[in-house]
Amino acid sequence: MSRLIIVSNRVAPISEGGPAAGGLAVGVYDALRETGGMWFGWSGDVLSSVPEGIKLEEHGPVTFATIGLVRRDYDQYYRGFSNATLWPAFHYRPDLIEFDRHEYDGYCRVNRWLAAQLAPLLRPDDVIWVHDYHLIPFAQALRAQGVKNRIGFFLHIPFPAPQILLSVPRHQQLMEALCSFDLLGFQTEPDLRAFCDYIATEAGGAVRRDGTKPAEIRAFGQTLRAAAYPIGVYPDEIAALAKDGASGRDVQIVKATLHERKLVMSVDRLDYSKGLVERFRAFERLIEHDSHQRNNVSFLQIAPPTRSDVDAYRDIRLQLEAESGRINGRYAELDWTPIRYIHRQYERPVLAALFREAHVGLVTPLRDGMNLVAKEYVSAQDPDDPGVLVLSQFAGAARELTAALIVNPLDIDGMADALAAALTMPLAERRARYDEMMQQLRDNNVSVWRDNFLRDLKAP
Ligand code: ADQ
Predict the structure, then answer these.
(1) In the chain, N or C terminus with fewer CB closer than 10 Å?
(2) pLDDT, tens digit (0-9, with 9 covering 90-100), for 95-148
(3) Would you say the CB of residue 370 lies under 6 angstroms from ligand 1?
(4) CB of 65 closer than 6 A to ligand 1?
(5) Nearest 5 degrees, angle CA 77-CA 78-CA 80?
(6) Where do the domains of the chain lie, and which CATH numbers do they carry?
(7) CA 324 to CA 320: how far, in whole Å?
(8) How confident is the model over 164-171, as a mean pLDDT?
(9) What is the 22 CA–ligand 1 centroid distance (Å)?
(10) Cα torsion at 339, 383, 350, 402 (round to 10°)?
């Protein structure tokens, strides 16, 4: 059997029994355990001098191959071009794009350097699966090293409409590099369509689509395939975690401090794409207009800060602290704080158990490739008494979880109405919606995602 080589910006730290983090890490690690193989990427260390080489660690059939980045590479490749140029552009925020040609050069240089580190470890029949926007030039860089293996790419974030992509300087070079992969995977059909549009309208390429098969693309003198593979979770494992965690300390504290009030809950990385400001305002609108809800519902927002060395992330953090302070100052009573806003990470079992306690999961990104939190919230519910998911139409997950209450995250009144409907929804309707979504999550779990992608990558 051929080995699977996973390449991602970060290699998830492995604890006993598997990675601690969410969907991608769990799904990838599982695939690796089954086929055997290697996971290659940045160790997360920022070094003061060039690392001596790759650090290899064996865990059963899986080899973890990690390497540190020097400060300049981290600044240009990771903080700069990946997170201050590509991330805002791909999340439809051209107003937040920062571009510096040295950062772009650094991004390409680090891709070439990483490819040169990996190339000597490869065998001829390895299958290589590269993940996410940090590594768009990676296949081109491997090809330059003489690597002939199949190389696939999965984009975890949205693919923007061509008119947005045009605002990224060097977009054409980037897309040419992207077309060096053999197979491109996107989260949803609209992302795939946006890519095909770019190829047809901006790159003078050709796109052939035939039913449900991957699209065949010819562009920049290369041929490749592209399709949508929505990433999933393992819903039954999350359900079991949530049930087991019910008696845990954190859950008991939350329950005790709620005093029978209903709980609305959100969990996100602190990111401007997640729509947190609009969400806080929608909750304010609910308690402002609906006097029954006031003092009868609490909103728990868990949002650990990320990428805090990028300006736009500092700004959103300050804005959210101001908003939650303003809303709490205005509505809090001696025994009730409307919004609990917490900046920390929680273990997966704790999050799952908290999701199960929440009457409403409020997941309202302005743009999101998929949004695994939406899928985790549904998975964690008690089948006999499930909560209600309120979900943004701009999360990739909204295409599958159509039984959620779907909202436009820019429509504050619409979100407040959906919250009110969710908090008063009769049990029969909650169950029907939950059953439908759970079925969908089981039918497209993370193994299905991975197997479909790898089947198409290996296809002749
Ligand atoms: P993210 O933007 O990080 O992922 P998401 O899909 O919601 O967004 O995944 C976050 C993961 O981190 C979830 O598993 C969640 O449980 C976990 N998490 C979040 N906050 C946490 C906290 N405070 N403590 C512990 N765990 C926490 C990117 C794309 C998404 C896409 C995924 C996977 O932006 O659109 O769904 O990759 O492809």
Answers:
(1) C
(2) 999 999 999 999 999 999 999 999 999 999 999 999 999 999 999 999 999 999
(3) yes
(4) no
(5) 75
(6) 4-232+446-458 (3.40.50.2000), 235-443 (3.40.50.2000)
(7) 6
(8) 98
(9) 6
(10) -60
